[in-house]
Amino acid sequence: MKLSNKKVIYLICSLTMVLILSGCWDIKDINHRLLPVSIGVKKVDDQYLVILNIPEPIDGSMETKIVSAKAETVSKAVDTISRNMESDVYLLHVKLIFIEKETAEDGINDIIAGFMRSRDVSQKL
Prior knowledge:
By secondary structure, the protein is of the alpha/beta class. Helices cover about 35% and strands about 30% of the residues.
């Protein structure tokens, strides 16, 4: 059974497509994710200080890690925290968003709009 050149090329292209397009090369393991349960936001000068409360299981007990960053927007601050940590920050499990009183009195439209546009935080907060 002899294959023509066109059939061989078609077979090679098909196998290559199957190998390249299948699989989950961009999936991150749950162990390499940080899942904060609360976020604190405070406006300092023209920047936002974002504080994340991240639970960490250590030796059968639950400890909490507090991390923070400053940036022009809340999203950029969260990205800065992700870059500085060895794991990525996912905000889908956030249950509470704390906004400092003075920041809230100045207006929270930008903060809430940023969370709603980014779709990082669950809408069922």
